[in-house]
Design goal:
WH-like_DNA-bd_sf, mainly alpha, DNA binding, rod-shaped, Tscrpt_reg_LuxR_C, Multidrug-efflux Transporter Regulator, Chain: A, Domain 2, 2 domains
């Protein structure tokens, strides 16, 4: 115990007859782990995970449970492993990356080497997060540009309701969208040619279009008429 923190010690591999130690990076816990054997409920409570999470880590070969009667229990080595898993998960490392880290740590021949291996893994994760952050910043900048454009050009985005048209303009626009010629629109709405031309010009002006075809295209984008 040092400075109120419990420091985990290197663990011994049960698969090594010689008792070869497996060095893990130095990790300090804020409280003393439960006494061995650690029941699954105590393990889950201590690390703030669910029983299902512990089973998942077992399936991935990261920790191993033993049987104590009908109970699943863990030894000190699994507490050490779980402490490292928790730290890695807190910084967003994937399970596959943690598996690779454990494989790498199994080759460490000293505590300092294990610490260095872990530091390299953390640096790699930091680079990954920095790259992701750069992408997010770039996307945010693009969104800001698009939103600023919409604010300075109201009524042009697909979410806008579009300009206000009177009943005759609305009917005319719908016919234009259906492919009616100006002459046919005149007959349908019982308007003279110059009245139709004036009506279409008014619609185009309100939509900021250069001609009737552009007016229809913009109206479709704005959801004012069916496509």
């Amino acid at each position: 115990m040092s400075n109120g923190l419990y420091h985990l010690q290197p663990i011994t591999s049960p698969s090594e007859p010689s008792g070869k130690p497996i060095y893990f990076p130095e990790i300090a816990l804020t409280r003393t782990p439960p006494r061995e054997p650690v029941a699954i409920a105590d393990m889950a409570e201590f690390f703030g995970v669910t029983h299902r999470t512990l089973h998942f880590y077992e399936e991935k070969g990261l920790i191993t449970a033993q049987r104590f009667g009908l109970m699943r229990v863990y030894g000190r080595s699994e507490v050490t492993r779980m402490a490292l898993i928790n730290v890695c998960r807190e910084v967003g490392m994937s399970v596959s990356v943690i598996q690779d880290l454990f494989d790498t740590l199994s080759t460490a021949t000293s505590q300092s080497e294990a610490n260095l291996m872990f530091e390299e893994a953390l640096i790699a994760r930091r680079r990954e997060l920095a790259a992701n952050l750069s992408t997010v910043h770039r996307q945010l900048q693009q969104l800001n540009i698009l939103l600023e454009h919409e604010e300075t050009n109201p009524g042009r985005g697909p979410q806008s309701k579009g300009p206000s048209l009177d009943d005759m303009e609305t009917r005319c626009l719908q016919l234009m969208a259906e492919g009616y010629t100006s002459m046919r629109i005149g007959r349908t709405l019982e308007l003279k040619a110059d009245e139709v031309a004036s009506l279409e010009a008014s619609i185009a002006g309100k939509l900021g279009a250069q001609n009737r075809f552009q007016a229809v295209a913009k109206a479709v984008l704005l959801g004012m008429v069916a496509n």
